[in-house]
Amino acid sequence: MSPARTDHDARRRDVSEAVWQVLAEHGFAGLTLRAVAAAMGASTGLVTHYFAGKRELIAHALDILEVRTQQRPRLKAPAIGLPTLRTHMLNILPLTSEGAAMNRIWVGSWDVALSDPALFTAQATRYERIRAGLCAAIEDAQRLGELPARADAQRLATTALSFTHGLVVQALFAPERFPAEHQIELVDGFLVTLRRSAG
Predict the structure, then answer these.
(1) What is the distance of C-alpha 119 from the center of its chain?
(2) What CATH number is attached to the domain comprising 17?
(3) pTM of the model
(4) Alpha-carbon distance 29 to 35, whole Å?
(5) Total structural domains in the chain?
(6) For 71-104, how does the pLDDT look when each residue is reduced to its tens digit (9 = 90+)?
(7) Which helix (H) or strand (E) is 145 found in, with range?
(8) In sequence order, what are the residues at sequence separation of 6 or more whose Cβ sits closer than 8 angstroms to the Cβ of residue 169?
(9) Which terminus of the chain has a lower count of CB atoms within 10 Å, N or C?
(10) Is the dihedral of CA 84, 88, 90, 96 positive or negative?
(11) Are 61 and 99 members of one domain?
(12) What pLDDT, in 10s, does the model give residues 135-172?
């Protein structure tokens, strides 16, 4: 690899770290080319070498957020079926300070994604993937007899994700009322209700 290519890759990593720093401190509302340049101690011109405008910057920020979300420490499911569904739901919630920070950024991304068709599509696809993961766990639970086989797995997955995201919003706005242990209790209660309603 040529030195020039190595320098370019290193600089792009520096830009990505600066984008993440701005996101973590100011959210999408504060994400601008100038803010990223300031975080790097560089000129705005250097940042525009990587991003033609605000939309490209936001798209890159969403990519970084997705990668960071996947790489953060996660709970491991002890078994397939309902334990996996429970673990998926818990891994979405703001149970730690890092999880809360990540969720604040995700919630902040909704506004920009809703206002841009391409970003909207990317976010919609992401939520389809999450629902698919929940649905797979539910189908395993049905095969194991933990949930009735006649229940609509996709509908249950949508219900589970709706509950989880609603809990995320409440926990972010009232963290003192929704500490980690209470969020976990609510998820366990939801799963009990899910089994009853699905039956």
Answers:
(1) 14
(2) 1.10.357.10
(3) 0.85
(4) 11
(5) 2
(6) 888 999 999 999 999 999 999 999 999 999 999 9
(7) none
(8) 107
(9) N
(10) positive
(11) no
(12) 999 999 999 999 999 999 999 999 999 999 999 999 99
